[in-house]
């Protein structure tokens, strides 16, 4: 098959390599505008999105492309590899948000239309996960995406896939997470939230606390549950230091953080606030 790839990043580059290994002709690739990913494949032809209407292809494959594609005058089907389970989680960072909310994680392949993540689903794969580091989860998903290329392309070529309706009354559009979201300035959440944020950011840009608008990296995290007989108290304050861990008050106990720099007991972190237990 003659295949056009659309997107940027390591995953779609691995898909290009895999497709060539399977004997398919890669017509070229349309890079995501503004994405500076450095493709390592030397003989890859690059196109602009405006060229899509003049290209002769059998199939288009999209991954990590944040712009809608007008397919009204496109003469070949285009499928989108979406990092998330459709139709429940649409938009950016869908698996990250699913991980934070303990929802199903995996990827979906859908025929694109002129709307975001709304085309009919031709393939999906869910994975089991626990409290493992999110980097290992995402790498597992990316490998499954690349390895599914043979089956998905073959199904499209033979037209023997079963379309699943991509609609639900409970769909969610997610927004993209940024490195700045890994700087804590709110201590009103449950311990589980902070543990998962650490698992998401630790092997990437890092998880930080903020004090006087200066970031301090978190290198390890624990917590202690506590149901105290207090109605009013301050969260986001350092109340203890023990065995290299700073104890920070949160609504239901203490967030124990090992930090790159020591902060003295009594310090109020950026985002500290008075908290009323009965409002939780």
How is this structure best described in words?
There is one protein chain. The protein has 280 residues and is α/β, with parallel strands linked by helices. It has two domains: 2-174, Formyl transferase, N-terminal domain (Rossmann fold); 179-279, Formyl transferase, C-terminal domain (Methionyl-tRNA Fmet Formyltransferase, Chain A, domain 2, Roll), CATH 3.10.25.10. It is 20% helix and 34% strand. It contains four helices and 16 strands. It has helices at residues 10-21, 94-100, 134-158, 191-201; strands at residues 2-7, 25-30, 46-47, 59-63, 78-82, 89-91, 105-111, 121-127, 172-174, 183-184, 208-211, 214-225, 232-242, 245-250, 253-259, 268-276. A seven-stranded mixed sheet has the order 3-2-1-4-5-7-8. The chain has a seven-stranded mixed sheet with strand order 10-11-12-15-14-13-16. Strand 1 (2-7), helix 1 (10-21) and strand 2 (25-30) form a beta-alpha-beta unit. Helix 1 packs across helix 3. The protein is elongated. The chain starts with a strand and ends with a strand.
């Amino acid at each position: 098959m003659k295949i056009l790839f659309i997107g940027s990043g390591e995953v779609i580059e691995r898909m290009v390599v895999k497709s060539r290994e399977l004997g398919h002709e890669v017509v070229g690739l349309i890079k995501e505008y503004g994405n500076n990913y450095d493709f390592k494949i030397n003989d890859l032809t690059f196109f602009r999105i405006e060229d899509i209407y003049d290209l002769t292809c059998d199939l288009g494959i999209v991954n990590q492309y944040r712009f809608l594609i007008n397919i009204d005058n496109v003469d070949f089907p285009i499928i989108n590899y979406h990092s998330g389970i459709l139709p429940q989680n649409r938009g950016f960072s869908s698996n990250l948000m699913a991980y934070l909310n303990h929802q199903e994680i995996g990827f979906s392949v859908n025929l694109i239309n002129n709307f975001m993540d709304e085309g009919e689903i031709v393939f999906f794969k869910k994975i089991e996960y626990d409290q493992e580091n999110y980097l290992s989860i995402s790498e597992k998903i990316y490998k499954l995406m690349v390895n599914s290329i043979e089956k998905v392309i073959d199904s499209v070529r033979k037209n023997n896939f079963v379309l699943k309706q991509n609609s639900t009354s409970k769909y969610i559009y997610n927004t993209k997470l940024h490195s700045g979201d890994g700087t804590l300035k709110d201590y009103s959440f449950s311990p589980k939230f902070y543990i998962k944020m650490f698992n998401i950011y630790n092997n990437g840009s890092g998880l930080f606390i903020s004090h006087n608008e200066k970031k301090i990296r978190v290198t390890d995290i624990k917590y202690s549950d506590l149901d105290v007989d207090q109605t009013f108290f301050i969260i986001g304050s350092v109340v203890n230091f023990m065995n290299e861990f700073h104890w920070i008050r949160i609504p239901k106990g203490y967030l124990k953080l090992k930090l790159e720099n020591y902060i003295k007991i009594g310090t109020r972190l950026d985002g500290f606030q008075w908290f009323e237990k009965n409002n939780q």
